[in-house]
């Protein structure tokens, strides 16, 4: 478990939009060490962190990140993409869903979007803010977004000062090609 380059870019996007976060319901999926979710909570959002319910050590890492940052109010839940569970069903409507580098294995792409789509049904105005590292020109979300009736806006990294090799004094994201997406249901506008 470590901070992926995408997490730093998503955290930069959150920092750039920090004034809009207080009071927002935010869920981070695939949180791992939870940098974006921790930052959102520090900026006043009501955050729930989630990772794979089948990997308890991932959930322990989320809890440790909360403890280290004195965020006892942040809830940690186990969610497995593509599975309808009691924990998924009990989540309140969200305003923002965060994900950094969850689009890693192509076989998981549809399960991730199916889970996000389910959550979007509870609040059709929710936005899915996601960063991913471009690993192959052959991998695309476009067809799946269309299938799940979602639209996507690619946010230029320059627009939130994330178009550098080093952000916030770190060595990340380095020379990795990172994309920032804002996804919503097709029938709603931003």
Automatic annotation (TrEMBL):
Key words of the record: Chromatin regulator, Cytoplasm, Developmental protein, Methyltransferase, Nucleus, S-adenosyl-L-methionine, Transferase
Catalysis performed (reactions): L-arginyl-[protein] + 2 S-adenosyl-L-methionine = N(omega),N(omega)-dimethyl-L-arginyl-[protein] + 2 S-adenosyl-L-homocysteine + 2 H(+)
Recorded GO MF terms: protein-arginine omega-N asymmetric methyltransferase activity
Main localization, broad class: cytoplasm
Example GO biological process: regulation of gene expression
GO cellular component, one term: cytoplasm
Subcellular localization(s) per the UniProt record: Cytoplasm; Nucleus
Listed SUPFAM superfamilies: S-adenosyl-L-methionine-dependent methyltransferases
EC numbers on record: 2.1.1.319
Superkingdom to which the source organism belongs: Eukaryota
InterPro entries in UniProt: Methyltransf_16, SAM-dependent_MTases_sf
Function: Histone methyltransferase that dimethylates histone H3 at 'Arg-17', forming asymmetric dimethylarginine (H3R17me2a), leading to activate transcription via chromatin remodeling. Maternal factor involved in epigenetic chromatin reprogramming of the paternal genome in the zygote: mediates H3R17me2a, promoting histone H3.3 incorporation in the male pronucleus, leading to TET3 recruitment and subsequent DNA demethylation.
Family: Belongs to the methyltransferase superfamily. METTL23 family.
Assembly notes: Interacts with HSPA5, HSP90B1, TUBULIN, UGGT1 and UGGT2. Interacts with TET3. Interacts with STPG4.
Protein's UniProt name: Histone-arginine methyltransferase METTL23
Species whose genome carries this gene: Cricetulus griseus
């Amino acid at each position: 478990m470590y901070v992926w380059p995408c997490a730093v870019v998503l955290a930069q996007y959150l920092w750039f939009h920090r004034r809009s976060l207080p009071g927002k319901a935010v869920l981070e999926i695939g949180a791992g060490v939870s940098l974006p979710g921790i930052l959102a909570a520090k900026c006043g959002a009501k955050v729930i962190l989630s990772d794979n319910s089948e990997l308890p050590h991932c959930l322990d890492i989320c809890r440790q990140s909360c403890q280290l940052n004195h965020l006892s109010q942040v809830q940690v839940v186990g969610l497995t993409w593509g599975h309808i569970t009691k924990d998924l069903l009990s989540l309140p409507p969200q305003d923002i869903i965060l994900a950094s580098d969850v689009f890693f294995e192509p076989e998981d792409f549809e399960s991730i979007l199916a889970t996000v789509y389910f959550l979007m049904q509870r609040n059709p105005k929710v936005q899915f803010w996601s960063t991913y590292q471009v690993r192959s020109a052959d991998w695309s979300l476009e067809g799946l977004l269309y299938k799940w009736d979602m639209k996507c806006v690619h946010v230029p990294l320059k627009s939130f000062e994330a178009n550098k090799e080093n952000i916030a004094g770190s060595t990340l994201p380095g020379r990795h090609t990172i994309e920032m997406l804002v996804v919503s249901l097709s029938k709603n506008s931003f």
